[in-house]
Amino acid sequence: MDSRTPCLIGIAQRTVREQPGPEPLDLWEEVARAAADDARLPVERLESIQIVHTDSWQYDSPVGRLAERLRAAPRHRAYSKVSGTAPQTLIGAAAAGIAAGEFTCALVTGAEALATRRAYRRAGERTPWSHPADPKPPYGWERPPSPAELAHGLVLPVHTYPIMETARRAALGISVEEEMRERGRLLAPMTEVAAANPYAWRRTPRGPGELVTGSRFVGWPYTRDTVAVLEVDQAAAVVLASTALADRLGVPRDRRVYLRGWAYGEDTWEVAARPALGASEAIPRVAAAAFARAGLGLADMDALDVYSCFAIALRQACDAIGLDPYDRRGLTVTGGLPYAGGPASDYVLHSTATMAGLLRAQAGHGLVTGVGMHLTKHTYAVWSSEPGGRLGGAAPVFTATGVPVVDVHEGAATVAGYTVAHGRDGAAERGILVVDLPGGGRAHAVVEEPALLAEAESRELVGQRVRLVSPDGKVNVASW
After folding, report:
1. Helix axes 86-99 and 347-361, enclosed angle (nearest 10)
2. Euclidean distance between CA atoms 21 and 28, whole angstroms
């Protein structure tokens, strides 16, 4: 084995339940020290420090402040943009830097304290955290929503993902009621995994029916208990090192985990531009590339963690790679984003740390996937207790080409996918549609009439002929 072969030698996770809890900088420091201790590495010797973007607070110099706390002087530093794929991208960069001899060890960490932010907000207090950025930088989008998406209120994942769910449901000929039942059946086993995970945010096993009927709708047909829980206080960190350094540190071979291969790819950034609204073109290519680089296949995996912010993310992945949603291995090692916790961009650090711990305990291979934006960005990573394969990198193995999307349209159209946005009081507020246009192309539209909103939630609306008008020249309003 090459002395530069990278291996993961340190892991740490933290979940804070008492409120208010510590700020992200405190959490970064805590898990960084714990992961370095697990790696037998003096924390001040870290040569690379990379941090996943935190939604909780905008620091003036995130990596610099953490390096000061650790008394480290890393020559490689990075702070990611907003994305659920960011942890794997940073891990991939760390592994590549080690393999190239640019540095011998690296820390990747991330933390959210959104539950604490909420606690301060509810108490009517300002968040008393350190080193605020002044002025605040722009939000860390890699690419902001399009003007048409903004005009139609289609910004939040809790609205874009249900649109893709309804499109898939209709394409498969599944009824509204059947989709809800199957969603409960799909997610209920994840609650059992979360119940056994000491770091999980929600640790109560739930039955299938309870999950889809026991809480209010957020973006119909999704209920609050079947979507990622974002307001959590959680942190995770991993330490990677060269094989030569791991040898010098005395890290036992059975505590080293190897990134056998990983890949990245993209579907279209606008959901409405997807050629098949309920399916992914990118996932099968990304998965195939990751497995080819690893020299392994899906059948070789002993454990799986499929990104699970919403059911459609699980379903598109299973559809794309030929994975049975009820595979005996299960779809998660953590409990998934709705139950273990969905700390903004940071979840894949938790799934990676959990997978690494599992592979230390029982030798084998594991798959960890990531999703960014609105099922736009995809990472697939194969981890193993055995070295081998070839790393791969962040260059996309596939980039989808979209269908044209029209900002304004007046006249006939056909519903391709939809949701009904609900407020915190549980009331339906507006419908949001993606529609097919005569002659090709797509557009967005909203539904405002209460009677039509009620109808949209009572039957299949995909395939419905509608008429669009645009009173202000910016927003298309649908009726039928």
Report:
1. 60
2. 13
Q: Is the pLDDT of residue 140 over 90?
A: no
pLDDT at residue number 214: 87
Name 428's bridge partners: 422
Instruction: Determine how β-strand 48-51 pairs with β-strand 105-113.
Output: parallel
For the chain, percent helix, then strand, then coil, each to nearest 5?
A: 35, 25, 40
CA geometry: angle 342, 319, 377, nearest 5 deg? 45
**Average of per-residue pLDDT across 390-409:** 96
pLDDT tens for 154-171 read 999 999 999 999 999 999
What's the pLDDT score for residue 142? 85
Cα–Cα distance measured from residue 271 to residue 263, given in angstroms and rounded to the nearest whole number: 22
Copy the structure tokens of residue 130.
Answer: 């350190």
| Locus of tokens 């350094």 | 245
Instruction: Give the angle subtended at the CA of 77 by the CAs of 230 and 81, to the nearest 5°.
Output: 35
Q: What is the pTM of this model?
A: 0.97
User: How buried is 451 (Cβ within 10 angstroms: 0-12 exposed, 13-18 middle, 19+ buried)?
Assistant: exposed
Question: Residues 334, 189: contact at Cβ < 8 Å?
Answer: no
Both tokens assigned to 323: 């994975």
Residue 143 confidence (pLDDT)? 87
Nearest CA to 433 out of 476, 480, 376 is that of: 476
What pLDDT shows up at residue 303? 98
HSE-CB of 324 using CA atoms within 13 angstroms: 6
- Number of H helices and number of E strands within the chain? 13, 17
DSSP state of 150: H
For the stretch 179-189, pLDDT in tens is 999 999 999 99
